[in-house]
Amino acid sequence: MAGEAQDDCLFCKIVAGTIPATIVRETETTVAFRDINPQAPTHVLVIPKAHHKDAAALAAAAPELAADVLRETQAVADGEKLDSYRIVFNTGTGAGQTVWHAHAHVLGGRGLDWPPG
Ligand code: 5GP
Ligand code: ZN
């Protein structure tokens, strides 16, 4: 059911603390932690604690929670002292989504090309 922790979900396990992560911020509804395979000097993932499979599902089922995630990306960027940064929600296999628990990538600390690859 949307929002319920999934036994086979990596990010639900990070929320539960059963898989370790370098957590940079936590709120009642969200967790922000460093990506294990960083693509920029700052590469932090912001996730809702509740399980939703991607950003679209999150926005549809829980728009307030989607807003919490977006607010937290800003808080991460402030905490990392980034003037410029990129927020990415890979959505679907063709866009590179590999973990099926909604997450925002916050990338910064270097120049970021456009269009992305
Ligand atoms: P996606 O490809 O789904 O947009 O992003 C998933 C991200 O999760 C990838 O950037 C990947 O490096 C990161 N990731 C995968 N497994 C782990 C893990 O166990 N811990 C952390 N911190 N990040 C992970
Ligand atoms: Zn999950």
Automatic annotation (TrEMBL):
Transmembrane segments: none annotated. The active site is at H103. A motif (Histidine triad motif) lies at residues 101-105. Residues 10-117 form the HIT domain. PROSITE patterns: HIT_2. It comes from the Bacteria. One of its GO terms (molecular function) is catalytic activity. PANTHER family: HISTIDINE TRIAD HIT PROTEIN. This is Histidine triad (HIT) family protein. It comes from Streptomyces griseoloalbus. The lineage of its organism: Bacteria, Bacillati, Actinomycetota, Actinomycetes, Kitasatosporales.
